[in-house]
Specification:
This protein has about 220 residues and is α+β, with helices and mostly antiparallel strands. About 45% of the residues lie in helices and about 10% in strands. Strands 1-2-3-4 form a 4-stranded antiparallel sheet. Helix 1 crosses helix 3, helix 3 crosses helix 9 and helix 5 crosses helix 9.
């Protein structure tokens, strides 16, 4: 579970996003990060019951750095306002389908899928949808998936049919997507419940068929 003090630290950081304040409150950051790592360890413990590969995942290394790379950004705030945690049995840093846990006051969520795949990879996913759209729709309409997710995000969705596909294609709305992601919001109150680690793990397991579909499409 996430401690209230962890959320309080992030809220205070939002009001004081500067190096001087952070240095004075470094100990609070360290405690907050330890809390997040402990949650991730518990999530991984639950996930290992479904996939033993999660036993090899390092919770500490999974938590992303809070320091922002401001070299090419107009926003020069030095720190992120969240704890971001990619969760995968694959080597950290590998781009592809996967899960992501986001801890931020009033904006936490568990998500997953494949965000903005490169052009060639996107082409492969669309080909799989063209050949096997029924399987993807079966996954998205399954009871387990719909328990946590309302469907795929339509962020950056094309307004017209993509090249090589007719506008009357039966799966045209899926083919218009440029990302294949889904999200489940987590309230601050839920984060502080003792059962939150299992709930997060259950949400990840419910999305696994989507990840498997995307991996199958992109590993050919």
């Amino acid at each position: 579970m996430i401690q209230k003090s962890t959320l309080t630290f992030l809220s205070n950081l939002k009001k004081n996003n500067n190096r001087e304040w952070f240095a004075e409150h470094k100990q609070e950051y360290d405690v907050a990060k330890e809390n997040v790592v402990a949650l991730v360890e518990e999530v991984l413990k639950h996930l290992s019951k479904f996939d033993v590969g999660y036993k090899e995942v390092n919770a500490t290394k999974s938590v992303m750095r809070i320091y922002r790379d401001v070299r090419f950004s107009k926003n020069k705030d030095p720190y992120k306002l969240n704890f971001g945690i990619p969760i995968s049995t694959k080597v950290k840093g590998v781009e592809g389908p996967g899960f992501y846990l986001h801890i931020q006051p009033n904006a936490s969520f568990i998500g997953g899928g494949f965000w903005m795949p490169p052009a060639e990879t996107l082409k492969m996913i669309r080909q799989e949808i063209d050949y096997n759209g029924a399987e993807l729709k079966k996954i998205l309409n399954s009871k387990s998936f719909k328990k946590y997710y309302e469907g795929l995000s339509e962020e950056d969705k094309l307004k017209t049919s993509p090249k090589d596909y007719p506008k009357d294609h039966p799966d045209i709305e899926l083919l218009k997507l440029k990302s294949f992601t889904a999200f489940h919001s987590i309230s601050d109150a839920e984060l502080q419940e003792k059962t939150i680690a299992k709930k997060i793990a259950d949400a990840i397991v419910a999305m696994q068929p989507l990840i498997t579909f995307l991996e199958s499409a992109t590993e050919k």
